[in-house]
Amino acid sequence: MERLQKVMAEAGVASRRASEKLIAAGHVAVNGQVVTELGTKVTKSDQVTVDGVPIKREPLKYYLLNKPRGVVSTAHDDKGRRTVVDILKDDDVEERVYPVGRLDYDTTGILLLTNDGALANKLMHPKFEVEKTYIAKVKGVLSNHDLQKLRQGVIVDGRKTREAKSKLLEVADNRQSSRVRLTIHEGHYHQVKRMLKAVGHPVIKLHRESYGPLNLYGLASGGQWRELKPNEVKQLKNLN
């Protein structure tokens, strides 16, 4: 048996917290009976409805996408822009998956999409500190002092960032730009861009090359994707 709000989240109805609000407000029924108790548990044979509409319990799916530039990391976009979910739908993926976290519109790289609400919430929770590695092309050339500041943490919006790993990868011949690898364990808004700007090197291009144990090996740029292997899903669920 599983908690009702978890089943609703995994069915793509809403996040677990939003599902709890629906339950408390009397919008949810189990086998025809309205329930408002958040501790309610259901089995696979129970029929769950939201405002009279049965929820569809889909099999849990996990997809890894090499996100292209110019695509938004959301399931729907009010401005009509192409989304990461649209990329999978073009290849007839029917499950209502959504991205775990976000990459900026102009940022490329690794992105996980799933309909497993429990795992998504776990991976996005700050306490799990999922390691994420980025390659950034920045203005100017980072000095050893700049790299050390990034490792120790910099002040962004009045808050010091956590310790990070940083390495200078390449310097342009004209020394007008350079490439750096930055590994962080946080996921605040525009964090990598703000960290690099804080040391005087605004980002020109940004690419995320790994997420926890996952990388982009075998996935071409421009929106290629694949389903995660069972051992990869297990690795994500075992992160702590």
From TrEMBL:
It comes from Limosilactobacillus coleohominis 101-4-CHN. The keyword Chaperone does not apply. It is an enzyme of class 5 (isomerase). InterPro entries: PsdUridine_s_RsuA/RluB/E/F_cat, PsdUridine_synth_cat_dom_sf, PsdUridine_synth_RsuA/RluA, PsdUridine_synth_RsuA/RluB/E/F, PsdUridine_synth_RsuA/RluB_CS, RsuA_PseudoU_synthase, S4_RNA-bd, S4_RNA-bd_sf. Keywords: Isomerase, RNA-binding. Its EC number is 5.4.99.-. It comes from the Bacteria. This is Pseudouridine synthase. Pfam families: PseudoU_synth_2, S4. PANTHER family: PSEUDOURIDINE SYNTHASE FAMILY PROTEIN-RELATED, RNA-BINDING S4 DOMAIN-CONTAINING PROTEIN. Belongs to the pseudouridine synthase RsuA family. One of its GO terms (molecular function) is RNA binding. One of its GO terms (biological process) is enzyme-directed rRNA pseudouridine synthesis. Residues 2-65 form the RNA-binding S4 domain. PROSITE patterns: PSI_RSU (PS01149), S4 (PS50889). The gene is rluB. One of its GO terms (cellular component) is cytosol. Gene3D superfamilies: Alpha-L RNA-binding motif, Pseudouridine synthase I, catalytic domain, N-terminal subdomain, RNA-binding S4 domain. NCBIfam families: pseudouridine synthase (TIGR00093).
